[in-house]
């Protein structure tokens, strides 16, 4: 019997593994199908690009301001987190002693495991109240930046680790300073992977609801933020609010519509990240 | 003519003579004294001492693990945890103005594995250029460096092509061009022709001999025939120590040390 036919032969063991694996594949697929099935009646250009008047919670109009609010928060969070992530990763790679590296590694792995709502609570106490930034775009973006920072740092570290030492030494041997090696060798070589990490961080920021509930978003009264100290409306909290009003079928279908748009948004960032990763690998 | 060294009978009258110093007539550009290096608790280099003339090739031979590559890394400042004294033109390299980065601009190092950067051929040659004087003369430096590295004729039509499209032999010559573009005082080469085809090997050796007329070259090699072809001085290292330094013809024909004779005859060394 050929190896190929052996590979495709079903045995009880294989059947058991498949049985255990199937739910992991089927359930998310079914959930996605259900979301889009429920969202289909409301998904149209008017829903995507219409804006609520700020009073009716987007019940009668579209979700454009919530979409923009979510994107604004995610973009601002990443913009705030990038320099710190890059700085931490470069410090780790160039200056940190082995014990500092172990400490940083442990710290960022631990930070990644902290429930985001804890960061939200800290943001409420420190940024909203103590710094008097209020519930605002800036407060939310800073809290989200802290949430995505470990992800960005660990991704940047993984990217820099993939640069062979010989490559850096070839630059050192030419008398390039550490700064020149980073700017002229490391960044041009790894920018695609860094961008991949950034997109994944954006997707993560778009998925977070708890940290921004306390610090950045309101359910009504605002369409567009006037400044970084204005609150925003977001898709995540919009869905949360509408889902609480579970008795009204129209509100629920709008919630499904918003959920479908959010899923598409997160998925598109994830897909783009995978595409860039593939490009970088090639 | 290249002599097969493996089964050669050397004159037996040689005694344990002291390490031969350079002819006093030649001006010395590099002096190494009592250089010692330990890595991870292991002594890699012990009391290494030798001098280099202002031009010519100095081949460093010896068994694997003798400390040859580590020696080059110390001279280039990639290893900084050594003790002893290394002087270039009478200046201690630890006291070099501008620190290790500045030193590395004066002591070029070419690794065994050619490593070109993800950029064009031209950009690779220009990578180490420093200061407006060198950058202003970039085009001229690219041409002369590639010519000196015997690569110009092959790439002059496609200087803007990615350097990664070159063959391994061409990439190694590009690394040489990149190193000489910054006008080093000394050029160190760590097995530059290992695993290259005979044609590339020949071109690199020619280029080295041409370069050696202007600056001193230190070439670590396992290829004893290559060390003979490059002439100049030969340093034999074993177990982190310099066992013998002499002119090429003398070391290969009349080695003074027993260890050297054993190594040249059997390609093994038992220095412990």
Topology:
The complex is a heterodimer of chains A (282) and B (272).
Chain A lengths: L2 H6 L3 H28 L5 H5 L14 H31 L3 H16 L2 H15 L6 H25 L3 H9 L4 H30 L2 H6 L19 H10 L4 H33 L1
Helix pairs in contact in A: 2-12, 4-7, 4-9, 5-7, 6-7, 7-9, 8-9, 9-12, 11-12
Chain B lengths: L27 E12 L2 E12 L2 E6 L6 H9 L6 E6 L2 E2 L6 H8 E4 L10 H6 L4 H6 L1 H11 L3 H4 L12 H14 L4 E5 L7 H14 L4 E5 L3 H6 L3 E6 L2 E7 H6 L4 H9 L6
Parallel strand pairs in B: 3-8, 3-9, 6-7, 7-8
Antiparallel strand pairs in B: 1-2, 1-4, 4-5, 9-10
Helix pairs in contact in B: 5-7, 7-8
Structure description:
The complex is a heterodimer of chains A (282) and B (272). With 282 residues, chain A is an all-alpha fold. Chain A has twelve helices and no strands. Chain A has helices at residues 3-8, 12-39, 45-49, 64-94, 98-113, 116-130, 137-161, 165-173, 178-207, 210-215, 235-244, 249-281. In chain A, α9 (178-207) packs antiparallel against α12 (249-281). Chain B has 272 residues and is of the alpha/beta class. Chain B has a single domain, classed as 3-Layer(aba) Sandwich (Rossmann fold), CATH 3.40.50.300. Chain B has eleven helices and ten strands. Chain B has a six-stranded mixed beta sheet with strand order 6-7-8-3-9-10, with helices on both faces. In chain B, α5 crosses α7 (168-181) and α7 (168-181) runs parallel beside α8. The longest helix of chain B has 14 residues, at 168-181. Mean pLDDT of chain B is 85; it is low at 1-25. At the A-B interface, α8 and α9 of A face α2, β6 and α7 of B.
Mean pLDDT, all residues of chain A:
88
Per CATH, the superfamily of chain A is MetI-like
Q: What is the CATH-assigned architecture of chain B?
A: 3-Layer(aba) Sandwich
Low-confidence stretches of chain A: none
Strand-pairing-aware structural class of chain A: mainly alpha
What's the Cα radius of gyration of chain A?
23 Å
What is the N-to-C succession of helices and strands of chain B? Answer: EEEHEEHEHHHHHEHEHEEHH
Q: Helix amount of chain B, in percent? A: 25-40%
The N- to C-terminal Cα distance of chain A equals 36 Å
Placed side by side, the strands forming the largest sheet of chain B appear as 6-7-8-3-9-10
- Helical stretch count of chain A? 12
Shape of chain A: globular
């Amino acid at each position: 019997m050929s190896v190929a036919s052996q590979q495709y032969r079903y045995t009880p063991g294989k059947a058991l593994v498949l049985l255990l694996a199937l739910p992991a594949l089927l359930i998310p697929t079914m959930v996605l199908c259900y979301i889009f099935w429920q969202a289909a009646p409301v998904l149209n250009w008017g829903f995507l690009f219409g804006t609520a008047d700020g009073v009716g919670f987007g019940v009668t109009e579209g979700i454009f301001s919530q979409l923009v609010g979510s994107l604004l928060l995610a973009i601002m969070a990443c913009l705030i987190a990038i320099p710190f992530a890059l700085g931490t990763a470069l410090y780790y790679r160039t200056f940190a002693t082995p014990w500092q590296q172990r400490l940083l590694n442990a710290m960022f792995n631990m930070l990644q495991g902290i429930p985001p709502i804890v960061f939200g609570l800290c943001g409420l106490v420190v940024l909203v109240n103590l710094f008097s930034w209020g519930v605002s775009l800036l407060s939310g973006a800073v809290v989200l930046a802290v949430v995505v920072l470990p992800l960005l740092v660990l991704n940047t570290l993984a990217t820099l680790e993939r640069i062979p030492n010989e490559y850096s030494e070839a630059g050192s041997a030419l008398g390039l300073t550490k700064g020149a090696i980073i700017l002229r060798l490391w960044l041009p070589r790894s920018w695609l992977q860094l961008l991949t990490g950034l997109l994944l961080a954006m997707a993560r920021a778009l998925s977070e609801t708890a940290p921004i509930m306390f610090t950045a978003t309101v359910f009504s009264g605002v369409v567009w933020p006037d400044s970084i100290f204005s609150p925003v409306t977001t898709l995540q909290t919009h869905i949360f609010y509408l889902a609480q009003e579970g008795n009204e079928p129209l509100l629920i279908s709008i919630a499904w519509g918003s959920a479908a748009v959010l899923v598409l948004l997160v998925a598109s960032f994830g897909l783009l990240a995978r595409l860039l990763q593939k490009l970088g690998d090639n | 003519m290249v002599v097969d060294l493996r089964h050669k009978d050397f004159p037996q009258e040689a005694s344990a003579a002291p390490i031969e110093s350079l002819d006093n007539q030649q001006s010395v550009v590099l002096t190494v004294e009592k250089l010692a290096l330990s890595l991870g608790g292991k002594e890699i280099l012990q009391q290494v001492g030798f001098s280099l003339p202002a031009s010519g090739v100095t081949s460093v031979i010896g068994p694997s693990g003798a400390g040859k590559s580590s020696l080059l890394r110390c001279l280039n400042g990639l290893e900084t945890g050594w003790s002893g004294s290394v002087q270039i033109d009478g200046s201690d390299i630890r006291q070099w103005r501008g620190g290790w980065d500045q030193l590395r601009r004066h002591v070029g190092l070419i690794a065994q594995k050619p490593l070109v950067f993800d950029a064009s051929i031209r950009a690779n040659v220009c990578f180490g250029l420093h200061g407006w004087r060198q950058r202003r003369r970039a085009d001229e430096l690219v041409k002369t460096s590639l010519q000196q590295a015997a690569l110009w004729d092959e790439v002059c039509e496609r200087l803007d092509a990615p350097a990664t499209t070159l063959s391994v032999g061409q990439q190694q010559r590009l690394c040489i061009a990149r190193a000489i573009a910054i006008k080093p005082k000394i050029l160190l080469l760590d097995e530059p022709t290992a695993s290259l085809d005979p044609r590339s090997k020949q071109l690199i050796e020619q280029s080295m001999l041409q370069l050696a007329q202007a600056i001193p070259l230190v070439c670590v090699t396992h290829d004893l025939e290559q060390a003979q072809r490059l002439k100049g001085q030969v340093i034999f290292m074993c177990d982190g120590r310099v066992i013998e330094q002499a002119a090429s013809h003398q070391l290969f024909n009349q080695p003074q040390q027993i260890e050297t004779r054993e190594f040249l005859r059997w390609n093994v060394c038992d220095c412990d």
